[in-house]
Amino acid sequence: MSAPASTERLRWPLVLPVVSALVLAVTWFRHDHWLELTLVTVALIASIVAAVHHAEVVAHKVGEPFGSLILAVAVTVIEVALIVLLMTSGGQGASTYARDTVFAAVMITFNGIVGLSLLLGARKHHIVSFNASGTGSAVTTVIALAGIALVLPTFTTSAAGLAYSTSQLVFAAVASLALYGTFVFTQTIRHRDFFLPVSSDEQGKVTGLLDLDEDGHADPPPASAAWVSLGLLIVSLVSVVGLAKLLSPTIENVVSDLGLPYAVVGVVIALFVLAPESIAAGRNAARNRVQLSLNLAYGSAMASIGLTIPAVAIAMIWLSGPLELGLEPTQMILFALTIVVTAFTVVQGRAYTLQGVVHLVLLGAWLFLTVQP
C-alpha cells in the first residue's frame, strides 16, 4: 500500500512544471479573459512550488553552498531576461524599470527573506547562528555593488538626470562582473567553509560546522534524478517569469486605475520571481540552517545586481531612451537604514526574534512608501 503513495509524492513535481509550461505556451498570445488570467495565476503558483522542490533536490545532490548558488543564479538570469524584455516593450516606466526591479530585489532579499528566515528560525530554535565571516563578506559585496550601480548615478554629472554616461555604465558593468565573479570564487573554492551551516551552543555561539550527513535526511539522489530536477527547475523558473510577464499588463492596469506609482509593478513582479527563494530560505531556517537562508538572500541580491547591470548595459546598445539607475531620496534613505541594520545583524554571528522583526518592519516601510510615496 505504501508504493502508490510514494509514487504519487514523486509524480507531482514532474507534472507541475510541464503543465505550467503548457499553460504559458497556450496563453502567451491570448490572456485577456478572466478565466485565462485565473489559469495563469494558478500555473504561476504551481511553478513556484515545483521550483522550490527541484532546487532542493539539486542542492541535496551538489551540496552547499553550490545548491544555494544554483537557485540564486538561475532565478536571477531569468529575472534579467524579464527586465530586458519589459524594457524593450517601452511604456512609461521603461527608463526606471531596471532600477526599480533591482532595488526591489535588494529590499526583498535583505529585509524580506532575511527577516522571515530569522523569525522562523528563532521562533523554533530561540537563537539562530551563522558564520559572520562568510555572511559579512556577502553583505559587503552587495553594498559595494549597490553603491556603484544604484547610488553613484544619483550624484554623477556627466549625464542628465539619474543616469550614467556610456563610459560610466561600461565601468559599472565591468566592476559588477568583477565583484560577483570574485565572490563566487571565494564562496565555492577559496573559503567554502565560511558558507556552510554551523553548529552552536545554547547561547548561540558557533562551535563548528553542522554535520549535514547526520541530519536525518535521505541520501543524495542519483545523478540521473538530479539532472532531471535541474532541467525541471529551469522549466519551472522560465514558467514563473513568463507567467509573471503575462500578468504584468493586468498588474499595470490595476496600478494605473488605483493611481499608484509605476514602481509598484516592479515590486509585484519581483515578489513573484523571488517567491521560490523565499520559500526555500524559510524551509532551511525552520531546519536550523539559517546560514543557507542567508546564502540564498544575499546571493540573490548580489546576482540581481552583478548580472543585471552588465546585461542591461549590453542591451542599451539596441535600446533607445535613457536608463535611470540612480535611487530617489526616499529609496536611498531606506537602503541606508537597511545597510546599518544588516551590519548589526551580521556582525554578531547569531540572531533572535527581534532582528527578524526589525528587518520585516523595514520591508513593510519600503512597501508602504512605494505605494504611498
UniProtKB/TrEMBL annotation:
Any GO molecular function: potassium:proton antiporter activity
Subcellular location, record wording: Membrane
Domain of life: Bacteria
Membrane topology: Multi-pass membrane protein
Gene Ontology terms: cellular component: plasma membrane
UniProt xrefs under InterPro entries: Alkaline_pH_Ca-Antiporter (IPR052946), NaCa_Exmemb (IPR004837)
Primary localisation category: membrane
Protein's UniProt name: Sodium/calcium exchanger membrane region domain-containing protein
